[in-house]
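Researcher: Quick test of sequence recovery. Tokens follow.
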């Protein structure tokens, strides 16, 4: 069964206490005890294998206990939780955090500022979650907003975290549409602040990274205006270390990477229990966590420094320089696959929707079409072979539906079926995450018809 979500207030208080403790200690060896301070972002749920899930399952402590049998040392872990990557970087530069996880733009800024400060600097040692098209970043607007496309935000107030990957997606997507940076009223806010401002009418849009767009839409406070996958640029999160600490305690870094591998394996093999555990630890709805971290989810979890992801980082550097948040970075010095190589990790297959569709009676095979239905009181989801089968399953009932997930017909971005824009093309019923995406398909395919969710259900 899915555990009850705990209130946020005591969790945040505990995180602040942990942060205060971390700031007051040194992360160097004290006698036979080696301290390691880990900075993470609990609600940035495509870093959970290096943060929330890793912590909840105790994998790092277990791996360090194993390392202690070899080294004869005791290892003490302190966890420090933040809303974004910038404060983790600040703490790393002050030698207060040894290992941190954050998104691609903050990672690059981390490497740049550490190199600028002199000394050994920092190193990117592994990846957590990624999306090859950029769907980890999105823009949402209030449900009653008159905006239909991203270009409609010209002159509007947009909340984002400046310097984040979500901010970069916003700026680059607007530039493609001919909207200059100064033509929007950008509000530099932490994700939670921006989500509250959107609900209260203080801003016209929220451009953020996971899991905030999904959480806002699931809560009924907004709708998806722009899917980052439309940009077609890989986005990723990863693990960065202080190289001085890594050189002094390589066994700690290797233990961390093995623990990350444990968490990745658990998430991919048991995605629903993993989502429930992350939801319990963060206060996020389990349905939102599972949207991103479930099989065929928006995030793919794997530790290797894949060539296409590293090339995306290299291509991001000129953009970050152009917007003034990065001065210089020796990217090749910043990338360090040697720790992963020494950790000798086996490949972890990504989670995929499998089984037989109970309504259409055929195997679920194509990840570009496969969906899932999650019913209240059930410890597993029901697979759907394609969007039509999913709609038929919703019509057939079978309990209280918590969420139905289906991939966008163009980008593959997994989204809530009842929040999608639907198109009928002959016998096919096609879901799109945004109105813009549906309009593009309609324009390119004469004779197709736009449907509401209820009309799509009826048509199925």
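Model:
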């Amino acid at each position: 069964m899915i555990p009850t979500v705990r209130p946020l207030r005591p969790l945040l208080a505990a995180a602040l206490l942990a942060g205060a403790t971390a700031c007051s200690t040194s992360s160097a060896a004290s006698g036979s005890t080696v301290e390691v301070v880990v900075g993470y972002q609990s609600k940035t749920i495509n870093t959970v294998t290096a943060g929330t899930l890793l912590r909840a399952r105790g994998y790092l402590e277990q791996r360090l206990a194993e390392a202690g049998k070899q080294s004869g040392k005791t290892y003490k872990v302190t966890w420090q939780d933040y809303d974004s990557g910038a404060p983790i970087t600040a703490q790393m530069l002050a030698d207060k955090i040894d290992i941190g996880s954050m998104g691609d733009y903050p990672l690059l800024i981390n490497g740049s500022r550490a190199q600028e400060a002199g000394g050994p600097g920092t190193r990117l040692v592994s990846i957590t979650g990624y999306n090859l098209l950029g769907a980890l970043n999105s823009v949402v607007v209030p449900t009653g907003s008159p905006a239909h496309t991203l270009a409609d935000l010209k002159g509007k107030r947009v909340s984002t975290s400046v310097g984040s990957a979500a901010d970069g997606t916003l700026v680059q997507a607007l530039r493609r549409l001919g909207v200059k940076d100064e033509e929007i009223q950008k509000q530099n806010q932490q994700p939670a602040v921006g989500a509250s401002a959107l609900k209260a009418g203080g801003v016209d849009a929220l451009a953020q990274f996971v899991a905030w767009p999904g959480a806002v839409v699931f809560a009924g406070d907004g709708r998806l205006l722009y899917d980052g996958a439309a940009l077609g640029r890989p986005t990723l999160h990863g693990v960065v270390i202080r190289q001085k600490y890594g050189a002094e305690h390589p066994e700690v870094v290797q233990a961390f990477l093995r623990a990350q591998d444990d968490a990745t394996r658990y998430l991919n093999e048991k995605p629903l229990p993993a989502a429930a555990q992350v939801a319990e630890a963060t206060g996020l709805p389990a349905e939102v966590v599972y949207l991103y971290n479930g099989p065929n989810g928006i995030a793919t979890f794997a530790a290797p420094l894949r060539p296409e992801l590293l090339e995306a980082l290299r291509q991001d550097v000129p953009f970050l320089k152009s917007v003034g948040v990065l001065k210089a970075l020796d990217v090749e010095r910043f990338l360090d696959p040697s720790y992963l190589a020494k950790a000798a990790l086996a490949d972890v297959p990504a989670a995929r929707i499998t089984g037989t569709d109970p309504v259409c009676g055929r195997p679920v095979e194509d990840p570009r079409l496969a969906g899932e239905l999650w019913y209240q009181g059930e410890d597993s989801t029901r697979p759907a072979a394609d969007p039509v089968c999913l709609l038929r399953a919703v019509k057939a009932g079978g309990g209280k539906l918590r969420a139905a997930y289906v991939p966008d017909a163009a980008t593959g971005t997994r989204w809530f079926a009842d929040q999608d824009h639907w198109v009928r093309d002959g016998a096919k019923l096609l879901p799109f995450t945004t109105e813009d995406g549906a309009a593009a398909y309609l324009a390119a395919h004469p004779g197709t018809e736009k449907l509401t969710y209820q009309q799509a259900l009826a048509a199925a």
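Residues 212 and 274 are 19 Å apart (CA to CA).
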